[in-house]
């Protein structure tokens, strides 16, 4: 990573183009079966990524990861691990799963760990009341109330 990218990352100057590990879906309906797309924008300070571990927040379950060429899947009830790659720092990739969302509305944060040839990144920081910018923000989704009478699967 060149020095300009490093600063852009730290300052969140370009949150969409160069945005850490983020979730494509920003909101979803309580209780729904939801596709989640985790976007990996770069490696660990320039080092290629070989593993991505996503830990689901409380209340999320039934994670069904989407198989991905070149990556082996493993995991537990509340965690999905992709191992493979390597995903070079210069490249971008997406890691997809389907989950059943809980009924509890509001923002829910995912802990994502990125393991690289050299070093690791833990995307687990949750905003506090100060609103200070976070160096390694956790991806999140905002759950909104289900509409009464909507079809239920
Ligand atoms: Cu970043």
UniProtKB/TrEMBL annotation:
Origin superkingdom: Bacteria
Naturally occurring in which organism (per UniProt): Massilia rubra
Stated name of the protein: YcnI family protein
UniProt signal peptide: 1-19
Keywords: Signal
Signal in keyword set: yes
Domain YncI copper-binding: 20-75, 76-143
Family matches, as InterPro entries: YcnI-copper_dom, YcnI-like_sf
UniProt keyword Signal present: yes
């Amino acid at each position: 990573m060149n020095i300009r990218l490093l600063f852009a990352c730290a300052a969140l100057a370009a949150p969409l183009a160069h945005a850490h590990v983020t979730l494509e879906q920003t909101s979803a309906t309580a209780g729904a079966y939801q596709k989640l797309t985790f976007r990996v924008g770069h490696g660990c300070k320039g080092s290629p990524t070989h593993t991505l571990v996503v830990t689901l927040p409380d209340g999320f379950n039934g994670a069904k990861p989407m198989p991905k060429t070149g990556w082996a899947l493993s995991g537990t009830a509340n965690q999905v691990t992709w191992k493979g790659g390597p995903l070079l720092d210069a490249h971008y990739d997406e890691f997809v799963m389907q989950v059943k969302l809980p009924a509890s509305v509001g923002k829910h944060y995912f802990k994502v760990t990125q393991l690289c040839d050299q070093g690791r990144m833990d995307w687990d920081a949750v905003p506090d009341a100060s609103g200070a910018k976070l160096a390694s923000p956790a991806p999140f989704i905002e759950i909104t109330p289900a509409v009464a009478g909507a079809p239920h699967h």
